[in-house]
Write a structure and sequence with these properties.
By secondary structure, the chain is an alpha+beta fold. It has 13 helices and 33 strands. Helix content is 17%, strand content 40%. The longest helix is centred in the N-terminal third of the chain and has 20 residues.
Length: 840
């Protein structure tokens, strides 16, 4: 045994000695390491060998079987780094042969005129200094073609071209054949009987192509826009009582002959419903649902209107939350009477799930500050989740006009009673630079340059600066608005302005105004707003020398050439007497300075008084239920304005004005407009009213009359020539009835409408200066009882006329031709009137 043990020890010692003398490479290796070292990589230049080997993972037992090789091959191809990958096994080795993709040196676009290079570069996935991939280039080609199709060019062709460069680099060129614009040639409706096709075209965003389509893009075929139009049509019918309406399909067909799309909406209208009854029910203890009746906008007998039902539901749910029922939910329900065509509306108040807001996450606001977005919410983290308040916040964010799109969605929170609000936004440009121009028969030609920003510094501030220059007026203005004063929903703004109104064919004098006006506005309700303001401005009058050349000083009786204005327009003294101090008097005294063409007495007195400061406090209360502020067809707009002057300054008065417009649709798309207005200027204290403080009226009250053509007027020397300046009045009223209708034989997109109207109104009550004893103003020696003589009758002025209204691409334009039926003796008539302007 001892011999055997000794022999084993010798053998073991010898083995260790031999092993220690062998090279490391000849020692046994782990199977995985042996397999990886057996991979040989060929053809790689930029990609490291070890990076290629890392895609091959040994299988069970640490060996590279066929499955592991296949998985590695797929992974290498998926990287997009290689044009070709091959695997060969020979002599116990695994050879991976790769052909690397080239590197893109530059990307260029040729033939694109309608879409800029910068826009296309953002949309494609291939990038300079990135890896060239044919699959990616093919995808980019399709993407460029899709962008052109979205802009209405369906005949576009995009051809990619690869130009090889040294060092395995390539240049990528996309050649674009844009083709002609593919527009919508017709929009038709099938199944509509309650509303004409012309009326429904007003509702949708897709328009037919016409001569002015090059100024817009709504005639371009866009499948997403057409799909959105289906919902607009449906909402329009639901708003007008058609509770069963269905827009079954929006069919589009390309017509090769017309080279455009034909769009047809198929509609099933159903019957029109009215509200049968309105009821309120509550399943919450101690909550009286009937107390919400005042927040209902629907009533029995009225047309069924989904929008009013939704607004009622929102206001009721918010009111319930204010009363302490944070989880209350108001759900509208309705039972239809198919025979009587009525809907019985029931507002159900139920206890909703007890869910709280864990977080409000904002996404996409790269420029707009977070607090600008969060302040539009009436709830915050930790509050009870209220869908009505969330919907209101989404609507407010959209109305800011800072974002292309806003969407608020919910995600589960950390527990079942928690939710996370996700606010996804896409910002858009909020700055505007505009050059505008216009012409009117009153103000002449006018041009304006302005720059504005609706979201200044991303803080939600509004600022605007503008400069205008015209034939009869020019000015500069600066405006600024902080919409949330001290984090309250109060809008603080101010305006600074300078304006010069020059003399024209309607006034003999010019007026220069320099002013500053801060204001605060707040919304009392969605349809009711209040603005408080303070105004401080300086006014001064300017006169041409021809209207202010008086030399009528009676003390110079010894020299007729000095005593009287040396002009041919001597006025025979109405007293028929002679000046007893002048032996050469022949009875041809100058009646007064303005007897031979000078401006009226109140104008010259304003000139002598110099610049006058007005300091006033005022407010405007506005009630607005119009369906559209730019082109209203239904609703009521009421403005009540009052201004009190006398908070310092040189002037005191109380001025009140009321303006009301009521729109209602009649048959066959005819819209009636009733316009009522009135005003009152009251003298306060012992200060006299100035002529400039009076109301001045013309076609803004009764069409068919010139600017400042209605009301009290200087007639002191009317018997010797034309009447003098308009003096204005302290009281006015006006009433107008108008029918607006489209021209059915013209495409709707042209934007032309006709109007017929009848106006009536009056302006009276002049309370300005009538006497001025300044030297030379009135020749008191020749006429000791002379003063301002003026017509101040309250005669009703009336007219009838026709108008042409054009919502043109150059801005809103209006042409009116009105014929006065009744008028004052000294009123100035102007039958034709034109006005309009644009921004571009």
């Amino acid at each position: 045994m001892s011999f055997l043990r000794a022999w084993l020890i010798v053998v073991a010692t010898s083995a260790v000695s031999i092993a220690s003398s062998l090279p490391l490479a000849l020692l046994p290796q782990p199977a995985a390491a042996q397999a990886m070292q057996a991979i040989v990589v060929e053809g790689n230049r930029r990609v490291e060998t070890e990076t290629v080997r890392s895609y091959f993972k040994p299988g069970p037992g640490g060996r590279l079987d066929q499955s592991a090789l296949d998985d590695g091959l797929k992974a290498l191809i998926a990287t997009g780094l290689f044009q070709d990958v091959k695997i060969n096994q020979a002599s116990g080795r695994i050879v991976v042969s790769v052909v690397e993709n080239a590197v893109i040196g530059r990307i260029a676009f040729e033939g694109n005129k309608k879409i800029k290079d910068e826009q296309l570069s953002v949309e494609i996935q291939s990038k300079p200094r990135g890896t060239f991939s044919r699959a990616l280039v093919q995808s980019d080609t399709l993407r460029i073609a899709e962008i052109y199709r979205r802009s209405g060019r369906y005949d576009v062709r995009v051809t990619p071209e690869v130009i090889e460069q040294p060092n395995n680099r390539v240049d990528l060129i996309f050649t674009v054949e844009e083709g002609a614009k593919t527009s919508v040639k017709s929009v038709e409706f099938v199944g509509n009987s309650a509303f004409s096709a012309s009326r429904l075209r007003d509702v949708i965003k897709t328009h037919e192509s016409n001569l002015l389509s090059f100024l817009g893009t709504n005639d371009v075929y866009d499948p997403d826009r057409v799909e959105a139009d289906r919902d607009l049509i449906r909402r329009f019918y639901l708003k007008n009582g058609y509770a069963d309406v269905q827009v079954v399909a929006a069919l589009t067909e390309y017509d090769p002959e017309k080279k455009g799309f034909l769009v047809t909406f198929k509609i099933e209208e159903g019957a029109q419903y009215r509200i049968g009854s309105v009821d309120f029910r509550s399943s919450i203890a101690n909550f009286d649902a009937a107390s919400l009746r005042t927040y209902s906008r629907v009533s029995a007998g009225s047309l069924y209107n989904v929008e009013l039902v939704e607004k009622s539901t929102e206001e009721m749910q918010i009111e319930a939350s204010r009363r302490g029922y944070a989880f209350a939910m108001v759900r509208p329900g309705g039972d239809r009477n198919f025979e009587g065509h009525t809907v019985s509306v029931v507002f159900n108040v139920d206890e909703g799930p007890r869910t709280y807001i864990e977080r409000i996450n904002l996404r996409g606001n790269t420029r707009t500050r977070d607090y600008v977005i969060r302040r539009e919410f009436d709830l915050s983290e930790g509050d009870a989740y209220n869908r009505a308040l969330v919907d209101r916040a989404e609507r407010r964010l959209k109305n800011l006009d800072y974002f292309k799109s806003v969407k608020i969605v919910t995600e589960p929170g950390s527990s079942s009673d928690r939710v996370i609000l996700i606010v996804d936004m896409e910002e858009k440009s909020t700055g505007d630079f505009s050059v505008s121009g216009g012409y009117s028969t009153t103000d002449g030609a006018l041009a304006e340059v302005s720059i504005s920003e609706r979201n200044l510094l991303g803080r939600g501030l509004y600022a605007k600066a503008s400069v205008s220059y015209g034939q009869y007026s020019r000015g500069i203005s600066l405006s600024f608005v902080e919409p949330y004063l001290l984090d309250y929903r109060l809008a603080l703004g101010f305006d600074t302005y300078w304006k010069e109104q020059k003399a024209n064919s309607y006034t003999s004098y010019g007026v220069t105004t320099l002013g500053f006006s801060p204001r605060i506005g707040l919304a009392l309700r969605e349809d009711l707003s209040l603005q408080l303001r303070y105004s401080l401005y300086q006014q001064s009058i300017s006169l041409a020398s021809a209207y202010n050349n008086c030399n009528n000083n009676a003390s110079n009786a010894s020299n007729a050439s000095l005593a009287y204005n040396p002009t041919p327009a001597y006025i025979q003294n109405v007293l028929g007497g002679v000046d007893p101090t002048n032996s050469t008097d022949s009875g041809v005294y100058g009646y007064g300075c303005y007897g031979d063409g000078e401006s009226s007495l109140p104008v010259r007195k304003e000139l002598a008084n110099g610049a006058v400061w007005t300091s006033s406090l005022g407010y405007t209360l506005t009630y607005n239920t119009l369906d559209n502020t730019k082109n209203p067809r239904d609703g009521l707009l009421v403005d009540l304005r009052q201004d009190f002057a006398g908070v310092g300054g040189d002037v005191t008065y109380l001025k009140t004005a009321l303006d009301t417009k009521y729109y209602t649709p009649l048959v066959s798309e005819i819209v009636s407009v009733i316009h009522l207005q009135g005003g009152l200027l009251s003298k306060l204290g012992d200060r006299d009213l100035r002529m400039l403080d009076h109301f001045q009226m013309g076609p803004n009250l009764v069409r068919g009359f010139a600017s400042n053509g209605i009301g009290p007027r200087d007639i002191t020397y009317y018997s010797f020539g034309s009447s003098g300046d308009a003096l204005g009045g302290t009281k006015y009223w006006g009433a107008s009835a108008e029918l607006q209708m489209p021209f059915w034989f013209l495409p709707k997109e042209v934007g032309l409408k006709g109007a017929v109207y009848a106006d009536a109104g009056s302006l009276w009550g002049y309370q300005g200066p009538t006497w001025w004893s300044a030297t030379g103003e009135v020749n008191t020696k020749a006429c000791p009882t002379c003063g301002l003589q003026y017509d101040d009758s309250s005669t009703v002025r009336s007219s009838v006329g026709i108008g042409l209204i054009w919502a043109s691409p150059f801005g809103p334009l209006r042409f009116d031709y009105a014929v006065p039926i009744t008028k004052g003796k000294y009123d100035v008539v102007q039958e034709f009137r034109f006005g309009g302007g644009t921004s571009f």
